[in-house]
Amino acid sequence: MLEEVERWLAGRSWAAADRPLDQLLERKRAAGTTVSVVLPALDEEATVGAIVEVIRRELMEGLPVPLVDELIVIDSGSGDATAEVAQKAGARVVHRDDILPRIPALPGKGEVLWRSLLVATGEIVCFVDADLREFSASFVSGIVGPLLTDPEVQFVKAMYDRPFGGAPGQGGRPGGAEQGGRVTELVARPLLNLHWPQLAGFVQPLGGEYAVRRSLLERLPFPVGYGVELGLLVDALHTVGLDALAQVDVGVRVHRHQDGQALGRMAAAIYRTAQVRLSRGHLVRPELTQFERGPEGFVPHTYPVDTEERPPMLGVKEYALRRVA
């Protein structure tokens, strides 16, 4: 298995600079492929506008052919000005609850990504988290690139350093001890190495930046919560095989980091997603109890662990009707 992972790393891991923008534009024009970028957003007014502006300025406007044809922000119920900021910056903004209204929305990132397939029209769909700071257009062009240049590639994840204390020069150290990604290192990576060792070569298996051919996405179930990235990666492996998966180094990812309690809930969701894929068995207790110190000692707080998954979009009648149209 180690030899297979090393072979995959040598043939399916690249840097964003390996595919210059002019090369991608030429390939895109020749193939007539369309690209949608989707940003799932919840209370991200501080960062979403800058991300939208960079994508529009560098990948959509003033080019012989746009690399990105469609830029959509899916607002999942923000209490701040996320929608207004994103729209002013030039994105199309759609509220989660306005997509597929016959099915009541569940909370969670995966729910938003699943519903986005009904409003995004591109043959390639690129997901980007909306909390990124110091955003670079290479986060999009880098992961879209292999899908435009290699017809065998179907699913591309971004890989990057995640400095815990900020960007390089601001307290963060790429590749050093102060890395983020604690749920990745403590939960996701051990699970993948133990149960899906073919995926051991992915540097950022839980990263929120990845581009996928629609023809694959519409065949995959979506965990509604934080487990969506692990679930999609594992299911893509079983659906199209390791050689259809790839990763691209885009440099440094700067974003906010969660506290330990939130990370615990994320870890539980990741474990649950893996468990379902390992056994498809019954969840005895899909809940997580955590503790906080109060005036009279430790107080328990119990949270539900994401247990819902949305079916492959091909089975949703509204999506099927849109494809026919």
How many domains would you count in the coordinates? Answer: 1
SS strand fraction: 15-25%
Strand segment tally: 14
Helix proportion: 25-40%
Give the overall form.
globular
CATH architecture grouping = Alpha-Beta Complex
What class do helices, strands and sheet pairing give? alpha/beta
Strand order of the largest sheet: 1-10-7-8-5-2-3-4
In CATH, the homologous superfamily goes by the name Spore Coat Polysaccharide Biosynthesis Protein SpsA, Chain A
CATH class: Alpha Beta
User: Biggest β-sheet, characterized?
Assistant: 8 strands, mixed
Order of helices and strands: HEHEHEHEHEEHEHEHEHEEHEEEH
Kindly, what is the distance between the CA atoms of the first and last residues, rounded to a whole number of angstroms? 45 Å
Uncertain spans? 167-177
- Determine Rg (CA atoms, Å): 19 Å
- Mean of pLDDT: 90
How many helices? The count is 11
CATH topology (level 3) name = Spore Coat Polysaccharide Biosynthesis Protein SpsA, Chain A
Structural summary, described in words:
By secondary structure, the protein is α/β, with parallel strands linked by helices. The chain has one domain (2-324): Spore Coat Polysaccharide Biosynthesis Protein SpsA, Chain A, CATH 3.90.550.10. The chain contains 11 helices and 14 strands. The strands form 4 sheets. The chain has an 8-stranded mixed sheet with strand order 1-10-7-8-5-2-3-4, with helices on both faces. It has a two-stranded antiparallel ribbon with strand order 6-11. It is globular, with a radius of gyration of 19 Å. The N and C termini lie far apart (45 Å). Mean pLDDT is 90; it is low at 167-177.
